[in-house]
Amino acid sequence: MRRMNTDATPTLKPVPGLDIEKYKPQLIERFSNPGIRDTVARLCAESSDRISKWLLPVVRDQLAMPEPHVRFAAAIVASWARYAEGVDEQGGPIDVVDRLKERVMAAAQRYPNDKHAFLRDKELFGDLIDQPVFVEAYDRVLSSLHEVGARETLRMLLGHAS
């Protein structure tokens, strides 16, 4: 809900007949339904299509605001970069499923020698590499994913770091 409120909602244009404040809890309830099971692998599949269509437009709208909120969006992109490295936290292989698999994996695997290699793909990210507020948030999360792992990084993002 926090990402909805800080990142996405301020960028939405009004939709006639839709009360966004009533819709958000309904959306959370729908995605929280234990009868609708999903896998992390399926959610990560084809990230190059999903992120460019659904996340980056919100990021660009936020960056145009006087006080942009991109922390959670940057965390999603950093998580994608970490996933695209193709190795999990235990050192096992990750089967990256993406039409741009070779390209995103090659860029992601250049970390830590080039911590921004993933963001330098202008076709995917445009000028995000030139947006310090986004890059700083991305760097924090990607470093944390490498140093303490996904679970602790998520706790930090939600303000529950130990």
In brief:
It comes from Paramicrobacterium chengjingii. InterPro entries: 6-PGluconate_DH-like_C_sf, 6PGD_dom2, Mannitol_DH/Oxidoreductase, Mannitol_DH_C. With 162 residues, the protein is mainly alpha-helical.
Topology:
Blueprint lengths: L1 H7 L11 H12 L8 H5 L2 H17 L7 H14 L16 H8 L13 H4 L6 H16 L1 H9 L5
Helix pairs in contact: 4-5, 5-6, 5-8, 8-9
Proportion of residues in extended strands: under 5%
Shape: globular
The residue fraction in helices comes out at 55-70%
Number of strands: 0
CATH architecture descriptor = Orthogonal Bundle
Domain Mannitol dehydrogenase C-terminal: 4-142
InterPro entries: 6-PGluconate_DH-like_C_sf, 6PGD_dom2, Mannitol_DH/Oxidoreductase, Mannitol_DH_C
Protein name: Mannitol dehydrogenase C-terminal domain-containing protein
